[in-house]
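User: structure tokens for this one?
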Amino acid sequence: MTSILKLLVATSTISVAALGAKPAFAADLGTDAGTSITNNVSVAFNVGGTAQTAETDSDTFVVDREVNLVVTKSDGVNTSVAPGSTQQAVTYTVSNQTNDTIDVLLTSEQLGGDNFNVTGAITYYLDDGATAGVFDAGDTPITYIDNLAEDATVTIHAVANIPGGVVTGDLADIVLIGQAAGHGGAGVPTTGVGIQGTAFVNNAGDADDAAVVQNVFADGAGTGTGDGAGDGYHSDTDTYVVAGADISVFKSSRVVSDPVNNTTNPKAIPGAIVEYCISVANGAGSALATGVTITDTLPADVGGNGITFVTGSILVDATAVIAAGPPQTQTCSGGVAGGSFANPTVSGTLSDIAAGTNRAMIFRVTVD
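Assistant:
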């Protein structure tokens, strides 16, 4: 009877194998790693027409861990940076497709074949979700991702400094590399405040041990150097692109009126009013120009020979229409009162200037 029982158990094992190694489960990622699954069998029989006590047996195994980590850059565009800028972030999502809670160890590399390397250490921040995907003061500095639940996704910023001397169009590739690790211990989920776990070892080639949770690496190939499929790592590349402001300045003047002709074909004679326009243009495809300040020093008035500033004449954020020459000319209009005059200097601050646009400062003087 014992031999019959063994035969039945062996037959049952063959049937499960024939159904496939990964049966369908209701949960997306299947049964949690470490779950014990027990299967009981009972064999009833008669002797001489009399029912005998059934023979029973059972089999227990634990569900193994299918390790699958996915790192993806958060969007399909490069991150624009300016030369010499600091704390610039490229952003990724990290998703745990493992049937268990894991820690994720974070490293990065800079690939060859681009134009420059970032300076200093690359640091990592967990996005707080207040402004999703945007690196800001509320994000938490981390060295690894702690307690990433199965089927959970977090946003990570890799932050670095841009060297000076780079020029518009230069590129720097940054690879964020995640490595799946065991959950190291109690901590606040995904804050990195806990015990960092140890990287998993792949047991795919080992003999099966029904009593021990073994690891099977199921990750795909990443973009990092040597990051192949089934290695417990996953990585993706994001890119900084330098987009400096392409600023050009054009200063022009026109005679508004004079004491003889008034506003009809006025000339720059003593007593005439002359209007200056200083336009600042930012080239197409350039970075946003901010903190734009104009400083114009009037020539010295020596013995009454020169010009005198007209009080209250400064307008900022005017618009200039520039006509091709020769000679090149511009017509300025609009603007709001602003700026200041501290003899002999006229100053004004313009609002941010987007790529392909201009802003101007206008002021007037009297010919002495």
